[in-house]
Write a structure and sequence with these properties.
About 60% of the residues lie in helices and about 5% in strands. It has five helices and two strands. It has helices at about 15-25, 40-45, 50-65, 80-105, 110-125; strands spanning about 65-70, 75.
């Protein structure tokens, strides 16, 4: 698992850890059922407090990305695959909205926009 932390960021460290784990799940590096490092070992690896790492895991659990059970630790939840798919779709929608805004600025109509998208989609297959 790969997580980058920045002390210069406005984002709190616990949130950076949660974002890093979430990104590993969304990218497919971590799959449903995969065990996460213990809170203590991840804290040691990242050079942060156990409380900070615990807070990150609690956030991920609230969001449905992981489940934690006493004595067994934390694992990527079965629900994480659907959450990751929703996240990817939302990212795609944002990119499409941006492309639509650009098309409108260039006076490209809906039909021409769709045709351009169709051509590009076929090229990438």
């Amino acid at each position: 698992m790969y997580i980058i932390l920045s002390n210069n960021s406005d984002v709190p460290i616990y949130r950076q850890i949660a974002d890093g784990v979430r990104n590993n799940i969304i990218s497919g590096e971590l799959s449903a059922g995969d065990a996460l490092p213990s809170i203590r070992s991840l804290a040691r690896e990242l050079g942060v407090s156990v409380i900070t790492t615990k807070h990150a895991y609690e956030l991920l659990e609230q969001q449905g990305y992981i489940t934690t059970t006493p004595q067994r630790g934390s694992v990527v939840s079965a629900r994480s695959a659907s959450l990751a798919a929703e996240h990817r779709r939302a990212a795609l929608e944002q990119q499409l909205l941006s492309a639509i805004d650009t098309a409108k600025e260039l006076n490209i109509g809906e039909d021409e926009f769709i045709e351009i998208a169709r051509e590009l989609f076929k090229e990438d297959l």
